[in-house]
Amino acid sequence: MTSRAAILLSTSLAPVIWGSTYLVTTEFLPPNRPFTAALIRVLPAGLLLLAWTRRMPKRDEWATVVLLGF
Q: Are 41 and 24 in a shared domain?
């Protein structure tokens, strides 16, 4: 995939993903359970970022990761 094609694809996918959040939050997330809803929304994104970077945080970085997670 060329650089131009990648830019066009990512630019066109961003609004589609952003626009789908309303449907997901109103139809698929459990009502009256905010922590479960937050976990369902954040966990896939975190796993994708972890797979993208291909490395786990080092031992001394975990405190920062936990602090930023809250």
A: no
| Domains in the chain, number | 2
Q: Are residues 24 and 46 in the same domain?
A: no
Total H helices, total E strands in the chain:
3, 0
Eight-state DSSP code of residue 30: P
5 φ, ψ (degrees, to nearest 5):
-65, -40
Tokens encoding 69: 């997670």
Give per-residue pLDDT as tens, 20-33: 778 777 887 778 88
Longest dimension (CA), the chain: 45
Q: What is the pTM of this model?
A: 0.45
Let me know the angle formed at the C-alpha of 50 by 46 and 55, rounded to the nearest 5 degrees: 155
In the 8-state DSSP scheme, what is residue 32? T
Q: What domain range is 52 assigned to?
A: 32-69
